[in-house]
Write a structure and sequence with these properties.
By secondary structure, this protein is of the alpha+beta class. The protein folds into 2 domains: 167 residues, no CATH class; 183 residues, Nucleotidyltransferase, domain 5 (2-Layer Sandwich). Helix content is 46%, strand content 15%. It has a 7-stranded mixed β-sheet with strand order 6-7-10-9-8-11-12, with helices on both faces. The protein has a 5-stranded antiparallel β-sheet with strand order 1-5-4-3-2. A hairpin with a 5-residue loop joins strand 9 and strand 10. It starts with 33 loop residues before the first helix and ends with a helix. The protein binds zinc ion.
Length: 476
């Protein structure tokens, strides 16, 4: 799935400005099996075994003696309760020490009285008259509490999941079925959004949980390397995480590290930095992750300094990246012995923006991938004859950085940072979450990958990986 031979035959050909535009696959195309699209509704139906659901929702019930941390907590519970039972309440008394509500229908007997004890802000339910004198039809005529916020909490806690595949329509259907609330699209949409926010926790609580999360990760995964950088006021700056499985496994990988940065879209934005390798089966082998404010000299320098704890600076180590200046500076600084290569995909993109000509572009790609110096020199002369400006540009871009043949180390098939792009795509759903949830998504994904690979590796009869065996068969 994440196979990336050298990108030359896959992503490189996907330039919209070059060659035929690739056939676009619409992820929302109606050809998707319906099972997937309504997965969440099916789930809510199975969960919607009425008896079980009733039992679960009884956790919302009110009772004399119940304690609420503040009046706000009590009010929220009352809202959840009345939406569940499809009626509404009026407030009779509301002050610092007392809170009294009654059913909104005149003359009805349903009533809750709560008050504080001593100086504590906690509220206790003192009187609860749970029987209505009004009729079901009457009391359900008013429902001011059916807001996306309240419905979102009910949905999330009792009806269904809120994963990225869940669609607003199915949330609306489930809520209408369970609570008799009419849901149009936008209300369903906002309800799902609220449900997800409740599920994810706030961005702030992500930062609060970070130190204990890292501690737990280190405890559960021996050899894990974590580093939390705070500023002089104790505020978050950077976090670095390399799981024990990566630290242990990297010894067996070819010494080519692809680094990249990608934007996060949560409330505090930030950038996710990654260091990846490729395993013997041409699959992504994640090494380390960091969340920083932005890509600059300081953050990249910090990232490589942490990375050096698990990957020492040495000759023969290759680090591939895009052409970001800060990466170049940081590598010179922290990894003076390693060889730096730039991603040819990024180089081609720059060329396409500046120079015309399909033929000459093909030659550049060929030149980058040459195995023999004599081949390269011949092609490079051809480029010079066709387009002297482009030739000059490529020389200034430094042939040691973008060609296989002049690269001062060994970059094998890794001419691009495509594996980083694949990684970013695999994590795209996590990029809006709070910081702990981002790291947790990475952990869950890596656990799945490594578990699948272990099973796969054990099923191989020879020492060669499945992908490599295939390549060998093609070549002989
Ligand atoms: Zn009533």
């Amino acid at each position: 799935m994440f196979d990336d031979s050298d990108g030359a035959s896959s992503e490189d050909d996907n330039f919209s400005t070059y060659g035929e535009s690739p056939i676009e696959e619409d992820e929302d195309s109606p050809t998707l099996p319906s099972k997937k699209r309504y997965q969440n509704f099916l789930m809510s139906e199975s969960k919607g075994n009425l008896e079980v659901l009733k039992l679960e929702m009884s956790s919302l019930d009110l009772a004399v003696g119940q304690r609420y941390l503040t009046k706000k907590h009590l009010k929220r519970r009352l809202k959840l309760f009345t939406v569940r039972h499809q009626f509404d309440f009026d407030v009779e008394i509301s002050n610092l020490t007392t809170y009294v509500v009654k059913c909104w229908v005149d003359g009805c007997t349903w009533r809750v009285r709560a008050s504080t004890e001593g100086l504590s802000p906690q509220f206790y339910i003192r009187i609860y008259d749970s029987d209505h004198a009004c009729s079901v039809t009457e009391r359900s005529n008013r429902s001011r509490n059916e807001t996306p916020d309240i419905l979102g909490e009910l949905y999330k806690n009792f009806l269904g999941n809120v994963g990225p595949a869940v669609r607003p329509e199915s949330v609306g259907i489930a809520i209408t079925k369970q609570f008799g609330v009419k849901m149009e699209y936008w209300k369903s949409h906002r309800t799902l959004k609220c449900a997800r926010e409740i599920d994810e926790g706030t961005p702030e609580c992500g930062f609060e949980l970070l130190p204990s999360y890292l501690y737990m990760i280190r405890r559960a995964n021996p050899n894990t390397v974590t580093r939390l950088q705070i500023d002089e006021l104790g505020r978050f700056m950077y976090v670095f995480l390399a799981f024990g499985a990566s630290v242990n496994g990297f010894h067996f990988m070819r010494k080519v590290v692809v680094v990249d940065g990608t934007f996060l879209n949560g409330k505090y934005k930030g950038t996710l930095l990654t260091a990846l390798a490729q395993d013997g089966n041409f699959q992504i082998f994640p090494i380390a992750f960091a969340v920083v404010d932005t890509e600059n000299d300081d953050s990249w320098n910090w990232f490589f300094t942490q990375l050096k704890v698990l990957i020492p600076d040495q000759e023969g180590l290759a680090i591939i990246s895009d052409r970001h200046n800060s990466i170049g500076k940081a590598i010179t600084n922290v990894y003076p012995l390693a060889a730096r290569g730039i991603c040819t995909y990024h180089l081609y993109k720059n060329i396409l923006g500046r120079y015309k000509g399909k033929d000459v572009f093909r030659l550049v790609k060929k030149a980058a991938r040459c195995f023999k110096m004599s081949d390269f020199d011949m092609i490079f002369e051809e480029i010079e004859a066709l387009n002297p400006d482009l030739h000059g540009y490529l020389e200034r871009a430094d042939v040691r950085l973008w060609t296989r043949v002049y690269f001062p180390g060994e970059r094998y098939n890794l001419m691009t940072t495509n594996i980083a792009e694949s990684m970013n795509r695999a994590l795209s759903h996590a990029r809006g979450l709070n910081i702990v949830r981002i790291l947790e998504s990475i952990r869950v994904m890596m656990t799945r990958w490594f578990a699948e690979r272990r099973v796969d590796a054990r099923s191989q009869s020879k020492n060669l990986t499945a992908e490599y065996k295939q390549k060998q068969q093609i070549n002989y």
